[in-house]
Amino acid sequence: MYQILSWTIRYIFIVLIYYFIYSIIRLIYLDIQAINNKGKRNDNPYLKLVNRKDRLDFHVQEFYDLNDSTTLGRGKGNDIQIDDKYISSKHLKITLDEGEYFLEDLGSVNGTYLNSTVIEDVVKLRNGDRIGLGQIEFLFVKEVD
Fold first, then answer.
1. pLDDT digit string, tens, across residues 67-96
2. Residues 46-141, CATH architecture
3. Which SMART domains does the entry link to (predicted)?
4. Exposed end of the chain (fewer CB within 10 Å): N or C?
């Protein structure tokens, strides 16, 4: 009886080790894939997903290109639609004005965060700013020539 239990525990331990190695290889693959996708991008400013939980109840892309005026929310009329239950139907708006991008919260219930601070008014975005909403966070990327 002891020998059967010992073998069972060994096999479970080996399976856990292989699962751990698989998880690490998968993360490396996803990082390399994101880097390759970044290389194919144009020079337009974009939002990059920075904190992805292991499992989300909705689909979210790694990158979102920004237009002159981009709305983000749960509703179908937005340029970027994300079905997170903590995001309002019209949550935020990013606009281009005189070569600069500005972030505006559209009266969302749970608020919009810029670098971990709730925004109350329209704020200017800088390269590397973190935009938080719902369960996700984006990095604003505007590459400088």
1. 999 999 999 999 999 988 899 999 999 999
2. Sandwich (2.60)
3. FHA
4. C
